[in-house]
Amino acid sequence: MHKLLEKLKEEFFAILPPTIFFFVALHILTFIRVLMARGSHFQPLSTISIAIASLILGKAVLIADMLPPINRYPNKPLAYNIVWKTMIYLLMASIIHYLERLIDFSRQAGGIIAGNEKLLAEMVWPHYWAVEIILFILILVYCTARELVRVIGKEKMLRLFFGPAPLPQF
Hints:
By secondary structure, this protein is mostly helical. It has helices at 2-36, 47-66, 78-109, 112-122, 125-152, 154-162.
């Protein structure tokens, strides 16, 4: 029983950073989508829906991190892994973003195929691509921060950001 609790504690602390990041990021995206869709019939996601999506994305990041190809460039400059992971996470997030829209349209159209046709015909593509660009930037920031933590170390990063300030090196 003790080992199970230790494993649950380990999983909880592993999923916490990406979940918090995506929780904040999805709220930002929802706010931007509300601003872009002002005057339309767009219904924003609730905080509970965003929390569930954040947990799913957080777990997806942990699962992706276990796959061998995710750390493809461990001994190269950070930019390699940052770009690689950003593309993988962006692909996952884009699929989820499209499926989210597909579900909305499928409910209206009465089926997935009809919903996809309606989605392709009625979607405001500049809004969709604006959200994708914002997703790209947010994921790039996330991957950059994670790679810096991986190289510099969690304790040193926490100390750099939250103090106490490190002594100057001469």
